[in-house]
Amino acid sequence: MAQFRLQGSKVLAVDMAGDSVKARNGTMVAYNGQMNFKKMSGGGDGLRGMVTRRLTGEQMEVMEVKGQGTCFFADKATEVNLVRLNGETLFVESDNLLCTEATLRTGTSFTGLNGMASGNGLFTTKVEGHGWAALTSKGPAIILRVSQGMPLRVDPGAYVAHTGNLNRSLKSGAGWTTLIGEGGGEAMQVEFTGEGLVYVQPSEKLTFGGDV
């Protein structure tokens, strides 16, 4: 089984003994031992996954890395966060998914307006099964718990990923004052309710509702 560990905060090291992992294309920064790299079609699971990604816009290019030794992955000096899945489903923006164990299944999930507000289209990537996944974030991500009766609101541009049994809905604080240029500056938020964890980065990418 591939062993995931952090080499500092911005590099993922994966120790492999004949194992394989799936990683975003172009994120290998170094390796020792013997490694083979194989580009995967569309980043999903086979032809169906490829077609789904083409249709949904979640077109993350993925490669399979297999070998003996240690392979190091990084992406633009962003922070790397490890997530251990034990049968849960991880929902993550494709730009933030760096690497997964080969045992994990990937696919897409419809997000509707929530996804549009976050600037990543109508669909997001989901990862399921048992194993490690590595996420990237601009700055160290914080992990916020959502519980019954304690909803969480997140800026769409700061959202990275979530796990658990969560519902999310787009909330707007825009009113008539927005129309006359006196909006509050945080007109769009995503509200999470239920039970689960939300990963939030200390940086906001440009979003649909960003500066309203």
From TrEMBL:
One Pfam family of this chain: AIM24
InterPro entries with a match to the protein in the record: AIM24 (IPR002838), AIM24_sf (IPR036983), Trp_RNA-bd_attenuator-like_dom (IPR016031)
Protein name per UniProt: AIM24 family protein
UniProt source species: Kitasatospora paranensis
